[in-house]
Automatic annotation (TrEMBL):
Gene behind the chain: LOC104745089
Transmembrane segments: none
Protein name: glutathione transferase
Protein source organism: Camelina sativa (False flax)
Keywords noted in UniProt: Cytoplasm, Detoxification, Transferase
Ranges of residues in domain GST C-terminal: 91-214
Length: 224
């Protein structure tokens, strides 16, 4: 990183999307300033300035220029800072497949998990089944590899951070069980290895604080 470069992350402490960005910056050894945003209350002038379209986090600000959307930011970091820790494969086919699986995690698996836990009661059983089936494809794709990226953490691992850390806490808080060690041994092994990584561990939000947040959310959902 060149002297004088300014890197800021506008994020939310408990957001797996924000943490994706911080994980990659930590893995690549890029210093940055973290700015916590109140996205549910008073959104800061900085957030409205740098992400006027979506007004959401995370946002990466690099030398005054902003990039939004977590996986777009991860790719930008990969392309901007060439370090020994690569996130995306060099081979075009493998690179395309990494993008495919990352998009699959975001648009298929995480959406189904969210609806299974927070959606209308009438749809939860259907969405739980969809989330289970989505995770089964990931279980097969992972196989006996250490990480989705091979021997080191890569793009798909970062995209799947919610599954690696947040899902277990959500299951405990909601009482909805989707992923078990018996049904998903590969993903359970991967989850442990992923969150045991020192750079990943450094940015993960405290489990007890997340658990309290989710329990409060589920309490309000069940009382509706």
């Amino acid at each position: 990183m060149n002297q004088g470069e300014q890197v800021k992350v506008l994020g939310l402490w408990g957001s797996p999307f924000s943490k994706r960005v911080e994980m990659v910056l930590k893995l690549k050894g890029i210093p940055y300033e973290y700015i916590e945003e109140d996205v549910y209350g008073n959104k800061s002038p900085m957030l409205l300035k740098y992400n006027p379209i979506h007004k959401k986090v995370p946002v990466l600000v690099h030398n005054g220029r902003s990039i939004a959307e977590s996986l777009v930011i991860v790719e930008y970091i990969e392309d901007t800072w060439k370090t020994s820790q690569t996130i995306l494969p060099q081979d075009p086919y493998e690179r395309a497949m990494a993008r495919f699986w990352a998009k699959y995690v975001d648009e298929k698996v995480m959406v189904a998990i969210w609806k299974a836990c927070w959606g209308p009661r009438s749809e939860r059983e259907k969405e739980t089944k969809e989330a289970y089936e989505g995770l089964k494809y990931l279980e097969k794709e992972l196989g006996d590899k250490h990480f989705f990226g091979g021997e080191t953490i890569g793009f798909v691992d970062i995209a799947a951070d919610f599954i690696g850390y947040w899902l277990g806490i959500v299951q405990e808080a909601s009482g909805v069980t989707i992923m078990t060690a018996e049904e998903f041994p590969n993903l359970q092994r991967w989850s442990k290895d992923f969150i045991d990584n020192n750079f990943v561990k450094e940015v993960l939000p405290p489990k007890h604080e997340l658990a309290a947040l989710f329990k409060a959310q589920f309490g309000s959902v069940t009382s509706d």
